[in-house]
Write a structure and sequence with these properties.
15% strand, 30% helix, three-stranded parallel β-sheet, alpha/beta
């Protein structure tokens, strides 16, 4: 489980307590705490390493599920692409079971909600934007979020194949009252502004 930029590991305490009562191991990752300006790629790789270390310590586990809230959903998608074994269609020796992403900016934020009014300022502010912000505004070199819609060793990951490997995939979007991540991006609906 991975929380959003304003969240803490405590946000998942209820789910962790419920899951821990059975034969489930819960990793509420802390590797990206206080690294808010790093990009999706750097944070995703840290998360992948954290998950891989858990795999090494708990060889008896057979399946993996991922829950990501807000931008951590993108970090999770990036991480699973780097854990994915294309030949075995598994994630770090585990069968991919459930993928749940809540209110994540899957299509970036540039054309959605309040951000679309700032588009004229993006070229001016570009040097001042942190790595993550450039990625979310789709103005980073190589446009990472666009590459994350592809499958290619050249684009640094089997992004779609790794997501398809999950038995169940769910995206949730806030219909209203989400100032930062408008409905269109988490719902994969580019026509909703």
């Amino acid at each position: 489980m991975a929380h959003g930029p304003q969240g803490t590991v405590k946000d998942f305490s209820y789910a962790t307590d419920v899951a821990a009562s059975g034969e489930i191991l819960v990793l509420a990752s802390r590797v990206n705490t206080d690294k808010i300006h790093d990009g999706v790629d750097l944070r995703g790789l840290r998360l992948a390493k954290d998950i891989f270390e858990v795999v090494q310590r708990h060889r008896s586990l057979e399946t993996i599920s991922l829950v990501g809230s807000s931008i951590e959903g993108l970090y999770g998608c990036y991480a699973v692409a780097h854990l994915f074994d294309r030949r075995a269609e598994r994630l770090a020796d585990w069968v991919a079971d459930k993928l749940v992403i809540v209110a994540s900016s899957n299509l970036g934020v540039r054309q959605f909600g309040v951000y679309r009014f700032f588009q004229g300022m993006i070229p001016i502010a570009h040097p001042l934007l942190f790595h993550r912000a450039r990625q979310l505004f789709l103005c980073d070199d190589g446009c990472l979020l666009e590459r994350m819609t592809l499958d290619s060793a050249v684009s640094s990951g089997w992004f779609l194949s790794s997501l398809r490997a999950f038995r169940s995939r769910m995206l949730y979007a806030n219909v209203r009252n989400d100032f930062m991540v408008n409905y269109g991006s988490p719902a994969l609906d580019a026509y909703v502004k």
